[in-house]
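Q: For a teaching session next week I want to show students how multiple molecules come together into a single three-dimensional assembly. I've collected the sequence lines for a complex. Could you give me the predicted structure tokens for the whole thing so I can convert them for display?
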Amino acid sequence: MSADDSQEPTGRMSAADRRSQVLAAAVQAFAAGGYHGTSTDAVARQAGVSQPYVVRMFGTKLELFLEVFDHAVARIHDAFAGVAAQDGFDVATEDGVAQLGEAYTDLVADQALLQVMMHGFSAGSVPEIAAHARTGMARISATLRSTGLDDDSVRDFIAHGMLLNVMLAMRSPEHLGADPDLDALTVCTFGEALPGPAEV
Amino acid sequence: MSADDSQEPTGRMSAADRRSQVLAAAVQAFAAGGYHGTSTDAVARQAGVSQPYVVRMFGTKLELFLEVFDHAVARIHDAFAGVAAQDGFDVATEDGVAQLGEAYTDLVADQALLQVMMHGFSAGSVPEIAAHARTGMARISATLRSTGLDDDSVRDFIAHGMLLNVMLAMRSPEHLGADPDLDALTVCTFGEALPGPAEV
DNA sequence: AGCGTAAGTAATCGACTGATAACCTGTCAA
DNA sequence: TTGACAGGTTATCAGTCGATTACTTACGCT
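A: Of course. Below is the structure for the complete assembly, covering every listed component.
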């Protein structure tokens, strides 16, 4: 858990490659601690590079976070757009909404993206982050709307996603069995898509 | 915005009074910045006392936050319990759910409580906070369940609340008109209960 | 070969944060 | 009056963080 998760050949790399590697590391780091709770040094250690290098690559911790956040939002957005573009997709069928829901619960497998998005959404005290959050939320809701869902359904869908994010953030799935009341909410939120007791 | 919002007689007070005053200030401060993003000094300034006094009163920044969080959850919990205890309350009627919804949107008037709750819910990287978050969420969902709502309705209700929290956190209501896509989601989330352009 | 540039680090700084210690002071009981 | 305790502050510290500077080293090109 200390350094260089996933990437081992820490030898020299092209700037572009290194950049995306650090970005991936930053996703993991920020997913855990949020903007304020994550140091650039934590990101650096996760990526296996030095701390000054991280800030020099992105200019500022804030710019780094915004890039990480935008990346997460884009990936989530793409997941929905991908489903909507599938042959025979029809949101009018109950199967249609189910497919969209699956797209989201699939993202649970890559918890970090959802957590980063969540942290961006709730970091309203940093104006730039709040601005990106509004743009990201607008983009996602527009895409859902464009699949044919009406406004209320879009709202309900996103609302359910937010609950899912929150339940993940508070580690509910990992604590199944500890509290019957929470268990009920957990299973009924995640359905059968409960993430395993896997990684952090 | 610098010191001693609301309370002016900053002269000597009983320990209990001062404690609840600082607690109220801490709610405002943590609501804005979350756990990591708020310093004990910010809380102290908001309360009009010195920073060391704040930490001595609560022992630790973490203990202070947990107390603030529990307080927020308790107030929100009470709001629902209060509605459920009203004469003639019946969740089977569509008026019943509407009443519960109103109870929540009423809380929007005191945004700080919701924001503190939200921050607690997403501060999963601090184990103690996550534990309190799970307990709080369990308590709230149990109370909703006890009004007669079935599990799915409880989930939907809480999900809607989470979306509301998130939209507040990203200052959506204050930015109405800037983005049509976000506007649609905003008005359809808040209904007619849109908070005015009032305080921070 | 050898040099220039891009990749990357070590050293360090100033600001801030949470916490501790030591001190001050108003109020109330005897 | 006086003394003691509760309420509250100033001074200060050690650790952490984001950022800057200056230095080093590997690779590609002629």
